[in-house]
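Hi P.,

Sorry for the delay on this. The queue was packed all week, but I finally got your sequence through. Input first:
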Amino acid sequence: MKLLIVNGPNLNLLGTRETQIYGNVTFEAFFDELKKGFSHELTYFQSNIEGELIELLQKANVDGIILNAGGYTHTSVALRDCIAAISTPVVEVHISNIAGRESFRHESLLSPVCKGCIFGFGLEGYRLAIKAFEL
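Then the structure:
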């Protein structure tokens, strides 16, 4: 199974950004460990640019996408429309529990068009998302 993990804005700062919320491990270090636990073909992409994320999702030739859209989760109609338009299933992941944070983070524009959503389990949410594609 080919799975693509996509992280949006500011997730390139994992390991140093608000460590009380996001932890102190870089995503690259986590991804190296994550790949060891699965036989699936896992690839990773991160961008702070909304259009790059949309282009990638539209062109992805994979069995599933794991998406942490960061702040675009709450603001990007364009990203939502992209997910609705593609046939590749998308699982939405967030490191923190977005429902337990600031009120502007409570609504995800993406959740209604995703296969499923995993919030609040730290980086382990990515591992759970991979397992969701095995179901």
